[in-house]
Amino acid sequence: QAAATGSYAANATATWPASDEGDGGLLRAAMVALVRNSEMDGIRSTIRQVDDRFNRDYGYPYILLNDVDFTEEFMEKVQAITRAKVYFGKLPASHWGLSDYVTEDKVKAALEQNKDRYLYGGSYSYRLMCRYQSGFIHKHPLLKNLDWYWRIEPGVKYYCGMSYDPFRYMRDNNMVYGYTIAPTEKQLTVETLWNTTRQWMLENPDLLPDSSFVRWAINEKSQYNMCHFWSNFEIVNLAFYRSKAYESYFQHLDRAGGFFYERWGDAPVHSIAAAMLLRKDQIHWFEDVGYWHVGYGHCPQKPELSRNCICDAKQTFMYNSKCQRRFNEVDNISRDQALELARL
Ligand code: GDP
Ligand code: MN
């Protein structure tokens, strides 16, 4: 599909094929990023790499979202870097702001109290971002008819050429959630997240699946072990975030106020939800995706995976990741066992 020329109107209507299969064998899928005008160079760099490593052969569209209007310059220069269609969207105002369940005074006090305790501890906008990516991004009108998204971020690195379609791979294997890096979260940012989650489980046993991978996220003392999938890369079947269970869980978290009073990230929220609501076989580690985002990188080391990579094979974070080790070792548990874990 040829790129539009001249006008890059924000909130252009995105049209996707109504059927399961898209045009030319594409699924109803897109690469999606929340991004600021100031990150133009970073997102151009990311899109260029995603195109070079994978998307040049497919042409999945890009959807870029912003809480304020994108500038004309941003839209022009980003569209110029790729032949794929780029959609630019603004967030509905009701998706970006203080939740009804918290009070401004208490939020201000929390930011003040946490500003030197952890990164972004005093940042209000960071909290809006995490809450948005946890509870609203999948509801943006531009994503309406999409079945899948692959989240991208400005300034990351994609190291490896990919010779298959990961959306199709996940669909054909009945997978729901895909990740590449699994680090641990800073405990101070999620002090009450697991207690709040346990409460939701006990109140909603009917929304829990027969079998789940929730034990992956829980330690021997029945507390959250801080393991999560880094959501700056994630490939997800959006039916998961749109499900009744996920929405109920998000609403419960939002009511508890932790997105503001603490600094609950969308990564631990997505990850705990995935572990709690999915089975292990529905979660996929893309070991073949060489990737870097400030903090951690992953470079495939198996000869059959590293052939098309340009990274330093000494970047071995994931081969030493305690959360990946746990992923390999832990198995599913039944609903009753999950509820027992939640009761402890
Ligand atoms: P970090 O990865 O946790 O350090 O957080 P980032 O600063 O990378 O933010 C995560 C994603 O949200 C990135 O894609 C950012 O571009 C985007 N983002 C963060 N804050 C804002 C914001 O205030 N407005 C917009 N439009 N995007 C934001
Ligand atoms: Mn980031």
Protein described:
This is Alpha-1,2-mannosyltransferase ktr1. Belongs to the glycosyltransferase 15 family. One of its GO terms (biological process) is protein N-linked glycosylation. It comes from Coemansia thaxteri. It holds the Pfam family Glyco_transf_15. This protein has 344 residues and is an alpha/beta fold. The chain has one domain (28-343): Spore Coat Polysaccharide Biosynthesis Protein SpsA, Chain A. 34% of the residues lie in helices and 12% in strands. The chain is built from 13 helices and twelve strands. It has helices at 40-53, 72-80, 104-114, 124-135, 166-172, 193-203, 244-256, 258-261, 266-277, 303-306, 317-320, 322-329, 335-343, and strands at 29-34, 62-66, 86-90, 148-151, 157-158, 177-179, 211-212, 234-237, 283-285, 291-293, 296-298, 333-334. The strands form three sheets. The chain has a seven-stranded mixed beta sheet with strand order 3-2-1-4-8-6-9, with helices on one face. Helix 1 links the parallel strand 1 and strand 2. It is globular and about 55 Å long. The model is unreliable at 1-7 (pLDDT under 50). The structure holds guanosine-5'-diphosphate (GDP) and manganese (II) ion (MN). Guanosine-5'-diphosphate binds at residues 33-36, 39, 66-67, 125, 129, 153-154, 232. Guanosine-5'-diphosphate is lined by residues 33-36, 39, 66-67, 125, 129, 153-154, 232.
